[in-house]
């Protein structure tokens, strides 16, 4: 009888702790809308390369953009949204992970506001505004330079961070570390930063997966999307150490 009581108590404690810990997980995604006119990216079709039109943009409203991917995911539920026609941030959407309760907040920045987008991303890393901070878009640091964000001296938390753009390992790794972040996913090649990569790595990251496992998940998702070998897909992402 006593053994049964202890088992039930232990199970209840486990069920109480796991959702609470998972619910504390937060993800912030900074999306710089693709913009043929203001960015140095390889031009894409005009309809998806208009940095002032989030709903049709390659990195947002497109089927593989942030909104297109998460709105149609069974694992994430839309819980909030905001729209604006002015300013740097045109759309904000918030999703909750159905199984764990983790919350993801995504902002779509006007294509011509790339500097602001990266600066805000850096600030979120330096201030550990989220548990995981993700950038999606063209690698603006190929076109201009920005000072690194200053890490608050008394900051206790440390943010994990990922940068989904071409050759982000070369351009972002050192600045992210200087800002106090822990890079968990960076790229070594020219690549397509579809939001499907975020959904692929989220489960592994939320469960505390090792960096090599996160890289493998990203590689598998990228290989499936691009119809290349899994080895080639994984090779797009840098080898990072825990």
**Number of extended strands:** 7
What is the spatial order of strands in the main beta sheet?
2-3-4-1-5-6-7
Order of SSEs, N→C? HEHEEEHEEHEHHH
The fraction of residues assigned to DSSP E strands is 15-25%
Alpha-carbon distance between the termini? 44 Å
Kindly report the oligomeric state of this protein.
single chain
Give start-end ranges of low-pLDDT stretches.
1-20
Query: Considering DSSP H and I runs of 4 or more, what fraction of the residues is helical?
Result: 25-40%
Give the secondary structure arrangement, pairings included.
Elements: H1 2-23, E1 26-32, H2 66-71, E2 76-83, E3 89-97, E4 103-109, H3 114-126, E5 132-136, E6 160-164, H4 168-178, E7 182-185, H5 196-206, H6 211-226, H7 230-235
Parallel strand pairs: 1-4, 1-5, 5-6, 6-7
Antiparallel strand pairs: 2-3, 3-4
Helix pairs in contact: 5-6
Write up this protein.
With 242 residues, the chain is of the alpha/beta class. The protein has one domain. The protein has 7 helices and 7 strands; from the N terminus they run αβαβββαββαβααα. It has a 7-stranded mixed beta sheet. A hairpin with a 5-residue loop joins strand 3 and strand 4 (103-109). The longest helix is centred in the N-terminal third of the chain and has 22 residues, at 2-23. It is globular. Mean pLDDT is 91; it is low at 1-20.
């Amino acid at each position: 009888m006593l053994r049964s009581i202890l088992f039930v108590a232990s199970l209840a404690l486990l069920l109480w702790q796991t959702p609470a810990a998972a619910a504390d997980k937060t993800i912030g995604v900074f999306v710089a809308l693709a913009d043929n006119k203001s960015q140095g990216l390889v031009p894409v079709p005009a309809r998806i390369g208009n940095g002032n039109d989030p709903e049709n943009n390659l990195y947002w409203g497109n089927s593989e953009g942030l909104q297109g991917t998460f709105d149609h995911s069974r694992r994430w539920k839309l819980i909030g949204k905001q729209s604006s026609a002015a300013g740097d941030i045109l759309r904000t959407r918030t999703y909750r992970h159905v199984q764990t309760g983790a919350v993801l907040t995504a902002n779509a920045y006007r294509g011509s506001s790339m500097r602001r987008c990266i600066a805000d991303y850096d600030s979120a890393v330096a201030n550990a505004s989220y548990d995981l901070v993700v950038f999606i878009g063209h690698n603006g640091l190929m076109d201009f330079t920005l000072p690194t964000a200053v890490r608050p001296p008394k900051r206790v938390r440390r943010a994990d961070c990922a940068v989904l753009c071409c050759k982000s390992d070369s351009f972002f790794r050192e600045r992210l570390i200087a800002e106090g972040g822990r890079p968990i996913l960076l790229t070594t090649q020219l690549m397509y930063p579809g939001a499907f990569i975020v959904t692929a790595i989220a489960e592994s990251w939320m469960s505390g997966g090792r960096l090599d496992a996160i890289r493998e998940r990203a590689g598998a998702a990228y290989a499936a999307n691009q119809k290349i070998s899994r080895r080639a897909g994984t090779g797009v992402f840098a080898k990072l150490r825990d």
